[in-house]
Design goal:
By secondary structure, this protein is an alpha+beta fold. It is built from three helices and two strands.
Length: 104
């Protein structure tokens, strides 16, 4: 009897993206790592109050890029959808944290 081959388990990956403040450039990789480094990147993002989107397939593609690389065209739409979700989530969280103006 032959034992079934196990699929290699993908290591946990995390990628942080950034862009220009003017919003005129493509998002770039500002942090990237696997395993323990990935966990630290996620932990630091959460400590800073940043929304973290879990998308293992996209992370596996982006983690192969070098720091400073722009997001490639092949995955740009997927990244755009994630960024839209994160911006919307951050905006709604900000509204909840901002106290309403009260007139006396």
């Amino acid at each position: 009897m032959v034992a079934p081959r196990r699929q290699p388990r993908r290591s946990e990956a995390a990628v942080a993206l950034g862009g220009s403040k003017l919003g005129r450039s493509l998002p770039r990789v500002v942090a990237s790592g696997r395993g323990e480094l990935a966990r630290r990147i996620i932990e630091r993002a959460q400590e800073c109050g940043l929304a973290v989107e879990q998308n293992a397939d996209l992370a596996q593609v982006l983690v192969q890029l070098d720091l400073g690389d722009s997001v490639p065209e092949e995955v740009f739409m997927a990244v755009a959808e994630v960024l839209y979700y994160v911006f919307e989530l951050n905006a709604s969280l900000k509204e909840k944290r901002t106290p309403a103006f009260k007139a006396d």
